[in-house]
Amino acid sequence: MSVVRAENIRFVYGGGTSFEKTALDDVNFEIEEGEFVGIIGHTGSGKSTLVQLLNGLIRPTEGKIYINGKDIWEEPKKIREVRFKVGMVFQYPEYQLFEETVYKDISFGPKNMGLEQDEIDKRVRSAAEFTGLREDQLESSPFELSGGEKRRAAIAGVIAMDPDVLILDEPTAGLDPLGRDALLSQIVDYHKVRKNTVLLVSHSMEDIARIADRILVMSKGKKWMLDTTHNVFSRGKELENIGLRVPQITKIMMMLRQKGINVDPTVLTVEQGFNEIVNYLS
Amino acid sequence: MEEFIEVKDVYFQYEGTEGEDSSAFALNGVNMTINKGEFVAIVGHNGSGKSTLAKHFNSIYLPTTGDIFVDGINTKDDDRLFEIRKKVGLVLQNPDNQIVAGIVEEDVAFGCENIGIPSKEIRIRVDNALKAVDMYDYRTHSPDKLSGGQKQRIAIAGIIAMEPECIVLDEPTAMLDPQGRDEVIHTITELNRNMGITIILITHYMEEAVLADRVIVMDSGNVLTSGTPKEVFAQVELLKQRRLDVPQATELIYKLAGCGFELPKCVLNEEECVQALIKYCSLQKKNG
Amino acid sequence: MPGKSFIHKMDARAKILLLIVYIVFIFLCYNFISLAVMTAFTVLVIALTKISFIKYLKSLKVILVIIILTGILNLFYGSGEVLWEWWMIKLTTGGISNYFFVIIRISILMMVSSALTYTTSPTDLTDAIERLLKPLSFFHVQVHEIAMMMTIALRFIPVLLEETDKIMNAQKARGADMESGNIFQRVKALIPVLIPLFVSSFRRANDLAMAMECRCYNGGKNRTRMKILHYSVTDLIALVFSAVMFVGVILCNLYFPNFV
Fold first, then answer.
1. Which of B46, B252, B259 sits opposite A273 (nearest CB)?
2. Claim to verify: residue C34 and residue C112 sit in the same structural domain
3. Residues of chain A with C-beta less than 8 angstroms from the C-beta of C169
């Protein structure tokens, strides 16, 4: 059974007013348990609306969303439980920190779930470990941390709820390359250990190419494609037409192939590209 | 080339981080010169001192020791503060937080109004500045509805209207989507080329740095290396060791060259990379 | 709302002054005839702005509760023939006429105020207020600073509203419950929203201060303006016309004192 299923989703902003705008139209897809799915799309393609629909922050105008086979709006009063199952990390999540200590802040979610103190403690510590926060930082104020650490503390706050599905909306925005690589590898490790489903929204095709199993491409409020990373990036020209690009290395291989050099145009990392060219040249 | 900014042995310490060891200093004896009309990119990690240095160029911060001269004026010269800020404009990272007025053209006029330009002249300058960043059609709009890239171009227009000789941009694209980044980078390269404005671009995107005339890499409050983009990115090993990014095209060619293939030392973008590989292949064919 | 109507072209200072006089006169209306004169004036102003009447009706929606409440309050205070009585509540002819009088009064007041805000940009407004208050600087009131604060507040209100929305969503995603519970629980539930909002406002204020410094901001000293407000013939016409209206109101009050 798929863990996330969207059925004929339509979402309209400002319904009934002159500002009415269809953000999503007839979106259907299924995501299997344990998958790592990248979500890409031009700004305004509807990807941010989509992820907010998935954890019940907004309600679809039409259509249904199933988490573990259950329609999330079947009982609107229990929508909070959906949010515990589908953890959502927003852009610049460090702006949500508010408690006196990092520990208390991370435990905000688990506390809202009504867990026992022991369980909360266990979860806070393991979430902090996943995101690379040190034990002694747990007792300091979140506002004393560096930018990258704040971001990790905020992500730990969502991971501590131990959601079945973790959604991250551009978790690396504004970080420098060092912070970005560290955070991405922590997310990948987390996914490997917990084996839950991760959805990652990103503008960086290089990052998505490196870590996603499948990619959901959104364009103008519609699902453009949902397929393996390899298959998505093999349609480079079409992606460019909808305002997206492919990783630089993929682009290079595509250009080489156009010039008659017979290499596989769908490589995703520099490593693969290097091997491919070495093979060709030797 | 004429020198415009001269940084002489500058040390800087934030208040509250006093101490003698070098880690207490955000800037650790920086020396550099920026020439008139140059497009310089300064790259480095967070905490490398690049943003701290940016705020020294127009006297927002003053060196703890050492001196900075802008067109011959010491940035410590309090009497000539506004003269310096008129010459060197600074654009900050967050596009939302640097727009003062609720209407685009009035925000662009803000700086000119502060330095006492006559009304009629402000109107002309504002219109020209908005045209230079390609935002003239939005002059009567509210900034709220604009995209990040558009807001950032408004902020740049506000600086251009003051007719500076140099614009310093402190990570202007860090919070933007790829389209917004392209818009902003396109705008500043045009300003450099067409209006001869000196550009100092602080960034951690290497794809942006390769467009500059000169790249300065900062690390731990000091200059690690500098030179033309080709010279700097040829040092892939050094950059990787400091965990700095290198464009994928550059990395690929570097790796191939490392395996004994005869390729150029450094390429900066996909076109150069493909050209180099094709040239290599055709040479191989000729040699059989 | 941008536009090129007669009212749009008027000087913001003239508009503010006329609005103040208008408010005074609305409260000077004693009878339905003078109120009719004011209503006619209001309709004329609205027509001159060339903005759809529906927009004005929408502006009334905001204060609908106030209109209804004050209306109802006035309904039961009045003399005259008793039409209906129940316990301590009496409905009289005077009460009913009071009811309509008050409702019309508040409604046209709101609509004319909207006419001002619809036809004047926020910056023009603050600018006009700054100039009108200028004489106060004689008493060491920091007029320029007040105006600057208003400009910045107007600019950042939408930014902070959007930010509030984002933070609320982020906390809701962590299971914060803001929709249920008693008043104390609800106030407590706001803490996770308010603290981040404060922190971010301080950060923004810091950034903005730096951005303003970068652009040579130095208070009101030696400052020029791109747009200079100047009174024109338009304002004179408006002034004369309004004066006629207001004289009409006074005359109506005097000649029909009892027409209530």
1. B252
2. yes
3. 52, 57, 90
CA atoms within 13 A on the CB side of B7: 24
Domains, chain A, ordered by start = 4-246 (3.40.50.300)
Q: How many CB pairs under 8 A join A and B?
A: 78
User: Is the pTM above the cut of 0.80?
Assistant: yes
Q: What is chain B's pLDDT, residue by residue, as a tens digit (288 residues)?
A: 789 999 999 999 988 766 666 677 899 999 999 999 999 999 998 889 999 999 999 999 999 999 999 999 999 999 999 999 999 999 999 999 999 988 899 999 999 999 999 999 999 999 999 999 999 999 988 898 899 999 999 999 999 999 999 999 999 999 999 999 999 999 999 999 999 999 999 998 888 999 999 999 999 999 999 999 999 999 999 998 888 888 999 999 999 998 888 888 889 999 999 999 999 888 887 876
How does pLDDT run across B48-91, given as a tens digit for each residue? 999 999 999 999 999 999 999 999 999 999 999 999 999 999 99
The partner residue sitting opposite A97, judged by closest CB among C176, C177, C196, is C196
B177 at the A interface (CB within 8 A)?
yes
**Contact (CB<8Å) B106/C204:** no
Q: Over the stretch C85-97, which tens digit does the pLDDT of each residue have?
A: 777 677 777 777 8
**C69–chain A Cβ distance below 8 A for any pair:** no
Whole-angstrom Cα distance, residue B125 to residue B133? 12
Q: Which residue of A has its CA nearest to B275?
A: A256
Flag if C218 and B119 touch (Cβ within 8 Å). Answer: no
Is A146 part of the contact surface with chain B (CB cutoff 8 Å)?
A: yes
Tell me if chain A has a CB within 8 Å of the CB of C200. Answer: yes
Please name the member of C166, C177, C191 whose beta carbon is closest to the beta carbon of A90.
Answer: C166
User: Mean of the pLDDT values across residues C178-198?
Assistant: 85
HSE (side-chain half, CA atoms, 13 Å) at B77? 14
Q: ∠ CA(C28), CA(C33), CA(C35), 5° rounding?
A: 45
Higher pLDDT, A264 or A18: A264
From chain B, pick out residues whose CB is under 8 angstroms from the CB of C218: 82, 114
- Please tell me whether residues C102 and C26 are part of one structural domain: yes
In angstroms, the CA C164 to CA C194 distance is: 8
Residue C28's domain comprises 6-120+230-255
C224 occurs within a structural domain: no
Inter-chain CB proximity C159 and B144 less than 8 Å: yes
Domains, chain B: 3-246 (3.40.50.300), 247-288 (no CATH)
Q: Is residue C225 part of a domain?
A: no
Check A261 against B277: CB less than 8 A apart.
yes
CB contact (8 A) between residue C215 and residue B114: yes
The residue written with tokens 């902070």 in the block is C160
